Amino acid sequence: MDLKNFSVSKRSLSHAAPQAGRHGSFYFMIFLLVAAMGFGIIIWANYEFSKEDQMQGENVQSVNRPVSKVRVQLEFSNTKRAFEGTASPALSVEGALKQVAAVADLNLRIKNGAVLAVGDKQSSETSGVWKLYINGENISDGLSQLVHGGDRIVLRYE
Asked: Which residue spans traverse the membrane (predicted)?
């Protein structure tokens, strides 16, 4: 064993240590830069997800608005019967009246877009006719109109 060579190699290692320290700080700076970029990406992604959640939250709120009810009221002989429910898509006034008649167990007769009878009250020129009011307006041909949330349909025997 040659101790002289051992001490030289030991000296060469001690000279290499300061150079490794310089390179170590360079690598440490690169590590910090990469870590900072990774942290920034995580923060940015979290911000983007929170914006997306807010936008979805607004959409959910618009879907969860209270549904406006449709009110159907039958008026005859000092009697008023009112029914409320939600309007399904493509529900016509005639369809709503048929649903009300089925629920109320009333005979409903419609012919040529006119209500001929509800229960025992029949339209005639001498005793009275069934008139349709949609949102306060007398509509003679309104049975085919679509029902929307918030509509008020009154079928009155006059």
From this structure: 26-47
The 10s digit of each residue's pLDDT in 81-123 is 999 988 888 899 999 999 999 999 999 999 988 899 998 888 8
Q: Which two tokens stand for residue 126?
A: 């001498």
Q: Which helix (H) or strand (E) holds 120?
A: none
Show me where the domains of the chain are located.
1-65, 70-157
Q: What per-residue string of b and e applies to 56-88 under the rule 16 or more CB within 10 Å gives b?
A: eeeeeeeeeeeeeebebbbbbeeeeeebebebe
Q: Which amino acid is at 146?
A: L
Rounded CA separation 155/132 (Å): 5
Could you please state the CATH topology (level 3) that the domain comprising 70-157 is classified under: Ferric Hydroxamate Uptake Protein; Chain A, domain 1 (2.170.130)
**Beta-carbon count within 10 A of 99 CB:** 16
pTM, to two decimals:
0.57
Q: Residue 82 carries which DSSP code?
A: E
Check: CB of residue 114 under 8 Å from CB of residue 123.
yes
